[in-house]
């Protein structure tokens, strides 16, 4: 197994059968060898810095009906909200005061936020803080829409592919097309965005072989960012009784991703911190180098519940920022408040 890891370190690629072995039953010593190799590559390629992104969850209204998601269209129990532009700019002002240089605007696919409103939002943030980076995560759009956001000043776009299994993707996303998801990612890259993709770990019906295909797809796509996190059930969805993914498998996949894409921006996600009290620290030690503390107003934090057990819903932005920095330092890394732009090989 060590030979496979070292070849992956040197070549940044692996065959399907090798990836299957790395995701199989490893001894504790083999798993630790993989983690240490990923941490070594991370430090040599991107240093020991961890970039902080200020997350603003501006709407939990969504036209999609994804089976795993707490803000799915059919969830009648969700307490819906939208932030207006003034609310969003207040979050940016607080973020700027706390030193953030990137704002991640995330929301459901909410038809209220037309292209015109999203363009207005991006321009207003750039006027407020001209040197910042703006990341959008608002789902599937037509290419023309993405072009308008880019021209308005948006720098990055996050759109997780969720799973590279077409069958599983379309089973979990009623009325959605996996081909369209891929089209969106390709459009975003061609337009010039720094692009983020990613997948969930431990979805019902998902196999280790599916994760191998996720890894190979990401190696081919060469995104600037990859967001992965464990599947966590939400009580008001059809998958409420499904078992959750695990921090262990998520961290193993983070390590493999760091070796496949040495310079990628790799978050230790909130979901990872929610499934294990030390999950984010474990993610950083497995190769991750981004954390996204929440800048959303506390009055809406507990309404953006994609899954149950989400952490930090009651924390003020300043407390969240300070807590995250302590955790990063305790894991052996240092905070970098710069933009941290993506750089792929």
From TrEMBL:
Q: Superkingdom of the source?
A: Bacteria
Binding-site list for S-adenosyl-L-methionine: 162, 181
What is a single Pfam family found in this protein's UniProt entry?
Radical_SAM
Provide a Gene Ontology MF annotation, just one. Answer: transferase activity
Q: Which cofactor does it need?
A: [4Fe-4S] cluster
Binding-site list for [4Fe-4S] cluster? 62, 66, 69
Asked if the keyword S-adenosyl-L-methionine belongs to this entry, the reply reads: yes
Name the InterPro entries for this protein: Aldolase_TIM (IPR013785), Elp3/MiaA/NifB-like_rSAM (IPR006638), FeFe-hyd_HydE_rSAM (IPR024021), HydE/PylB-like (IPR034422), rSAM (IPR007197), rSAM_sf (IPR058240)
Instruction: Determine if Metal-binding is one of this entry's keywords.
Output: yes
The positions making up the signal sequence are none
Which stretches make up the Radical SAM core domain?
Answer: 48-263
SUPFAM superfamilies in the cross-refs: Radical SAM enzymes
Residue numbers binding (3R)-3-methyl-D-ornithine? 137
Q: Which UniProt keywords apply?
A: 4Fe-4S, Iron, Iron-sulfur, Metal-binding, S-adenosyl-L-methionine
**Family annotation (Gene3D superfamilies):** Aldolase class I
Q: How is the cofactor bound?
A: Binds 1 [4Fe-4S] cluster. The cluster is coordinated with 3 cysteines and an exchangeable S-adenosyl-L-methionine.
Q: What is this protein called?
A: [FeFe] hydrogenase H-cluster radical SAM maturase HydE
Source organism per UniProt: Anaerotalea alkaliphila
